[in-house]
């Protein structure tokens, strides 16, 4: 058996977590406007730091529990964590899956429209690409997170550099102006809560850990890996506080203010890659959950055709949800409610029952030779 690389042990889970978070969590900036702008520039940054710390703590506990119990899909993970109550998590996961994929599909349509194409073409291109990547299995998914992450961090770094260059005075002035920071704690908790679906979605990519130490380190750095691009994005948004809170797509607004066509194309390509990562991560988790049951009953893993079919069925269904409801209403009404449901069925159990079991386990029992 091939030994896992340092990348697979320490960086891959965090990069996968980041990938799932960004597309459904702040690729267009709408989610940052919803959860952080109401608390003001300073309050928004404090809320983001709180959310990042929550992510790191929960990912560390989740990855360590997955390693301890050898549960690398969310069904087996929650069966071992919650017993018969595991079905409660699956209900919340499915609801969040529909919501996040609807947002991802709508955002892909907006990207298509920004290039003058019908919105449905952007959505269909994303749908087909997700189906192809997930249909090819875990190795294909790992390659996506590795290479798409490079593009993402480079583009977000350039975005921050350009923002500071063009809007630096306005950012500094708005940061220095005292504004109410009411609600930043609840904003940070709510934002962290719904995005923690990503910790469950990336469980198939945690099978490379060789010890509890690997799991805890990988989980701890997952929070910063996922939040660092958001910090840069939010700093640029602060230049246009508070009006940017009303923009449907803050990213499109900021790119318009920058008025650099070449970079606009690069940024839209990066958002597409981020949406792809999110859709792949969410659906690959479903495929692995189905594959686990399929293998138990049939003796063989789920094939490429059924994996791609599941992806297409889920994505096309969610596109209709996005079309019927609209992006702002989806984010504003759905995320907050499901965020607290995720805290109840996932975060609280894993940070209590899960941590107790991790601490009680003998090191020799949980270490892979």
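^ Assign residues to that structure.
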């Amino acid at each position: 058996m091939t030994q896992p690389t340092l990348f697979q042990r320490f960086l891959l889970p965090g990069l996968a977590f980041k990938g799932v978070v960004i597309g459904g969590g702040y690729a267009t900036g709408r989610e940052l406007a919803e959860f952080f702008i109401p608390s003001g520039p300073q309050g928004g940054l404090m809320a983001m730091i709180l959310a990042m710390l929550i992510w790191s703590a929960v990912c560390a506990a989740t990855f360590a529990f997955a390693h301890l119990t050898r549960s690398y899909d969310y069904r087996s993970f929650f069966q071992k964590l919650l017993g018969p109550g595991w079905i409660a998590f699956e209900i919340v996961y499915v609801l969040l899956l529909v919501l996040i994929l609807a947002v991802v599909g709508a955002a892909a349509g907006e990207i298509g429209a920004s290039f003058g194409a019908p919105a449905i073409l952007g959505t269909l291109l994303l749908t087909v690409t997700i189906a192809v990547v997930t249909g090819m299995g875990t190795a294909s998914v790992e390659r996506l997170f590795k290479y798409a992450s490079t593009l993402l961090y480079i583009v977000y770094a350039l975005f921050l550099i350009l923002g500071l260059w063009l809007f630096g005075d306005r950012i500094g002035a708005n940061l220095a102006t005292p504004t109410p920071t009411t609600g930043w704690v609840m904003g940070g908790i709510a934002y962290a809560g719904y995005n923690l679906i990503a910790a469950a979605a990336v469980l198939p990519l945690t099978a490379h850990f060789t010890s509890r130490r690997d799991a805890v380190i990988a989980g701890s750095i997952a929070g910063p890996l996922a939040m660092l691009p958001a910090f840069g994005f939010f700093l640029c948004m602060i230049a246009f506080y508070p009006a940017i809170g009303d923009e449907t797509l803050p990213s499109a607004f900021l790119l318009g203010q920058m008025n650099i066509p070449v970079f606009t194309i690069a940024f839209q390509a990066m958002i597409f890659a981020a949406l792809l990562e999110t859709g792949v991560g969410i659906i690959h988790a479903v495929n692995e959950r189905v594959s686990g049951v399929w293998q138990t009953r049939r003796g063989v893993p789920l094939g490429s055709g059924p994996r791609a079919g599941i992806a297409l069925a889920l994505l096309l269904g969610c596109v209709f949800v996005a079309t019927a409801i609209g992006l702002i209403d989806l984010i504003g009404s759905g995320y907050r409610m499901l965020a607290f449901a995720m805290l109840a069925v996932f975060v609280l159990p894993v940070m209590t029952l899960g941590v107790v079991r991790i601490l009680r386990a003998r090191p020799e029992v949980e270490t892979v030779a």
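The radius of gyration is 20 Å.
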